[in-house]
Design goal:
The protein has 473 residues and is of the alpha/beta class. The chain contains 14 helices and 19 strands. It folds into three domains: 61 residues, no CATH class; 110 residues, no CATH class; 289 residues, 3-Layer(aba) Sandwich (Rossmann fold), CATH 3.40.50. A hairpin with a 5-residue loop joins strand 16 and strand 17.
Length: 473
């Protein structure tokens, strides 16, 4: 870089920091360039404007408000050793508007930076230590009382490298751990819910919505099993967006959970739910406080049912009808309420209506036009995933004090039915329109349906013996 350019940048940097060294800059309207005071010879030329620190401070206000650095409080809290220099990674958003280090995937945070602890009263040069390719540097000075962070006792200064100059940039220290679930307080006991593990079998449209909603409620320990990869056609209904296409749905969901809470623990399995992988299924179920099954076929649901009943784990099943004209949710308390096998025996006519392959689509379509596999709108799926989430939260919060306790009296049915529309060609096609009706079966309402265990059920057939035992017979 030419010396003249260096001089100009140094003077601009001083001006930005409010230091008036007496040096002046001149802007030449004709050449649209800035020169140092020593290099210009036409001080009174109408084509030039003398720049002062005052001018720059006025202009710099706009710069200050548009760019800043966001860093988590954890990094600063844990930095107490004067010798420690911590390498960190930032995301650069909106052409340098924000440098954020809250990213969960370091491979995506491609801006290198350094956080350095400075001793109180230290006069050492702040930019001497760091990585050569750093573009962000943070300096932390704790004063007297280190505990009250990030208050006045801590001075945090940030710099961003622009055109080979370190420009001081406002730093926002964000207390993630303290604030992330602050809007849930008073409704649910976040600490109670965060100590529980949720097992999710299938991470499709319904499963991904449930996973996101539970993570937002404070669940931070998930096991997710799904062998499928995300396709472009999934995006209109899945919680993950286009950047995740090609990835395993499990991995995409794990990242989404960590984007909600970086303290989350997510283990994934990319294997199929089948007898060959039963050990893995069993391990996931044994670890779980609740199991949620949203697979698209009855065979896998029956495998999960058998294992959950055997392990005594509560499981919630969710399924959609074709074209997502409705859906159902089925909750199984092993040995207390009917299991999924009982449900299949109770309602043999309730065949799987979900369209998960082209052959089913051809059989079920009532129009001549080709039907896509699993058609359905995201907003028609949301009521189903919402109900599963509600049921799951109630289960996870059992035994805790919560204002949601009243829902225990409402959510007692083993089977819930929801209809999005009066789909022609189905048993619900002739329902009375919703209009102003309060009674009867209508669309867009939940219906809790009672069901009884089947004594002959091969999975939970000892139900009668269990009842007798409970009754002391
Ligand atoms: Zn059963």
């Amino acid at each position: 870089m030419r010396t003249e350019e260096k001089n100009i940048r140094q003077i601009l940097e001083n001006m930005a920091k409010g230091k008036d060294s007496g040096e002046k800059l001149t802007y030449d309207r004709d050449t649209k360039s800035i020169r140092t005071n020593s290099s210009h010879h036409e001080e009174n030329n109408a084509g030039t404007i003398n720049l002062t620190a005052e001018d720059f401070r006025f202009a710099a206000k706009g710069v200050d408000s548009s760019g800043h650095i966001v860093i988590t409080e954890d990094v600063i809290k844990n930095l107490t050793d004067p010798a420690e220099i911590k390498p960190v990674h930032f995301m650069c958003w909106d052409k340098g508007d924000v440098y954020s280090m809250i990213g969960v995937d370091k491979s995506q945070c491609n801006i290198h930076g350094t956080v350095r602890f400075l001793k109180e009263g230290s006069q050492e040069s702040e930019f001497d230590i760091g990585n050569a390719d750093d573009r962000v540097r943070i300096f932390v000075r704790h004063r007297k009382n280190r505990k009250s962070l990030p208050g006045k006792s801590t001075e945090v200064r940030g710099y961003v490298l622009e055109n080979e100059n370190w420009i001081e940039t406002p730093v926002e220290v964000v207390p993630i751990e303290d604030e992330i679930f602050s809007r849930n307080i008073g409704l649910i006991e976040t600490k109670a819910i965060s100590s529980k593990n949720v097992a999710l079998f299938a991470a499709g449209s319904v499963g991904s919505e449930i996973c996101s909603a539970l993570a937002k409620a404070g669940v931070d320990d998930f096991s997710i099993m799904d062998y499928d990869r995300l396709k472009v056609c999934n995006i209109s209904r899945h919680s993950a967006g286009l950047p995740h296409v090609g990835r395993f749905k499990t991995k995409a969901m794990a990242q989404m959970v960590r984007e909600i809470s970086p303290y989350s623990r997510v283990t994934t399995s990319e294997k199929k739910i089948c007898k060959e992988n039963i050990q893995e299924v069993r391990q996931i179920i044994n670890k779980a406080d609740i199991v949620i099954c949203t697979t698209d076929n009855r065979k896998s649901r029956l495998i999960i049912n058998r294992e959950c009943v055997s392990a005594g784990k509560t499981c919630i099943y969710a399924g959609l009808f074709r074209r997502a004209h409705g859906g159902q949710v089925f909750r199984v308390y092993p040995q207390i309420s009917p299991c999924y096998q009982c449900f299949c025996m109770l309602f043999p006519e309730q065949k799987d209506q979900r369209v998960s392959n082209p052959e089913q689509a051809r059989r079920l379509t009532y129009s001549d036009r080709p039907v896509a596999v699993e058609p359905g709108l995201a907003n028609d799926i949301s009521p189903i995933s919402n109900m599963v989430t509600k049921l799951a939260i109630q289960e996870l919060l059992k035994g805790t004090v919560t204002t949601l306790r009243s829902l225990d009296d409402d959510l007692v049915a083993p089977w819930y039915l929801w209809l999005n529309c009066r789909m022609e060609g189905t048993q619900y096609g002739d329902l009375e329109p919703l209009e102003f009706n309060l009674g009867g079966i209508h669309i867009l309402r939940w219906y809790g349906i009672d069901a009884k265990c089947q004594p002959g059920c091969p999975v939970c057939g000892d139900f009668e013996a269990h009842l007798a035992k409970c009754a002391g017979v």
